[in-house]
Specification:
alpha/beta, four-stranded parallel β-sheet, 41% helix, globular
């Protein structure tokens, strides 16, 4: 009898202690988690500062800045906006990036170019070489990481793989080595897999990044945030790989549309000139998670 009472007392104390500790799942969701590669990080996108002072004439902008310039009512960014060095980040550290994004409990995940270096690049983790089979294996690792985001039950914005074969011919040099670029046929197969993965997942919103980038390169109008973008100013940098400031706004506009649909909001129509000016403001630091 004494042992039974002692066990009951231990159980009661444990339950009371657990009740006093707010669990992670009890924390309210807040903000937008961005995770991805150089497009999300705004690689090479420098804009003049609005009302500059000495030594404060230009600043680097990221996709989070473009989203805020387009639609200040979107949830604020609560993670760093992408990684320009994602291509050399180990598979283990990529999983860590996903864990950090999950830990902040955002209202939505924005992983527009997260899958890029799971399809492009060398096949690290599977030995040397860039065979179709190894690229397919690595893509599955990327999709498995995205499955972790999907399991959170909030919107996940994901893009497919653009065709950057022409970036190999960029002058004066290419940021991509030929062995890093899958053939067009392999790219199509990888994108087919991405589209198949997204089907049936109610909280996954697949952005046609391949078509978007192709249109940006060829000067076709890009619809987003209620207006069209392009063909001028040019939407791609001279490396044929990264968006320009105008291209970042176009990418942000399409992402904004996807986010608003995912969050159950009505469409918006922005003013292009006002949005460009808003991007030049330097008072939009990415906040830390609450």
């Amino acid at each position: 009898m004494r042992l039974t009472r002692r066990l009951l007392l231990i159980c009661l104390i444990t339950l009371l202690a657990a009740a006093d500790q707010p669990t992670q799942n009890a924390r309210p969701r807040h903000g937008l988690a961005l995770l991805g590669a150089s497009a999300t990080a705004g690689w090479g996108v420098i804009v003049p500062v609005l009302n500059p002072t000495e030594g404060n004439r230009f600043h680097h902008v990221q996709l989070a800045d473009a989203l805020h310039a387009l639609d200040p009512t979107l949830p604020p960014a609560v993670t760093a906006s992408g990684s320009p060095g994602f291509f050399r980040t180990s598979l283990k550290n990529r999983a860590g990036i996903v864990s950090e994004a999950i830990a902040v409990r955002p209202e939505a995940f924005c992983a527009v170019d997260f899958l890029f270096w799971y399809g492009y690049g060398t096949t690290g983790g599977f030995g040397e070489g860039t065979t179709t089979e190894r690229r397919a294996q690595r893509l599955e690792l990327g999709l498995a990481q995205l499955d972790r985001l999907v399991a959170e039950g909030v919107p996940v914005i994901v893009g497919d793989l653009p065709n950057f074969t022409d970036a190999l011919e960029a002058k004066p040099f290419s940021f991509l080595a030929r062995g890093q670029v899958p053939t067009t046929e392999v790219q199509q197969a990888l994108n087919a897999r991405i589209h198949a993965w997204a089907q049936g997942k109610a909280n996954v919103h697949l952005m046609p990044l391949a078509k978007l980038v192709a249109d940006m390169k060829t000067g076709k109008p890009v619809p987003g945030a209620g207006i069209t973008w392009g063909p001028t100013p040019r939407m791609m940098q001279h490396d044929r790989l990264h968006p320009s400031s105008e291209g970042l706004l176009a990418l942000g506009a399409v992402t904004t549309d996807a986010l608003r649909v995912a969050l159950g909001r009505d469409p918006i129509q922005v003013d292009k000139s006002a949005t460009r000016v808003a991007l030049q403001r330097k008072d939009r630091p990415i906040p830390t998670a609450p």
